[in-house]
Amino acid sequence: MENEHVISGLKKKRAELAGKIEHHQTVLRQLIIDLDNLDATLRLFVPDIDLEEIKPKPMPPRSMAFKGEVSRIIFETLRDANGPMTVQQMAEIVMAQRGLNTADKKLARAISKRVGAALRHHRSRGTLRSVKGPGSFLLWEIAG
User: 20 to 30 Å CA-CA from 62: which of 15, 20, 70, 114?
Assistant: First the structure.
């Protein structure tokens, strides 16, 4: 049969998507049951409650970072750098490479924390090291 490998790959992908749909339908069914039970409990305490007035709480979006993406950017940046760098410098590069708004102060703080956590993780594994920088800043570089 012509294109067997293509058809095989498409069948595999279809099975994967169908499995995800079944999983999420099961999760959705359980969430509906949980919500119904919670509504019934609320009605025990407040029989005339208008449940429609309770607005759903939006779920935060999943992190856009792929697993290991921040670490990959950090190592690429430090390999190409002329010397040790601060967390802030690396956070700005991570934001730029991921196409994030570098003017967003709240997002910049969150990315700085994520970068700092990744740096400390790699320092504990011995792949990165920190050295004393100006003031109270630490500078980071590849160990070895």
Answer: 15
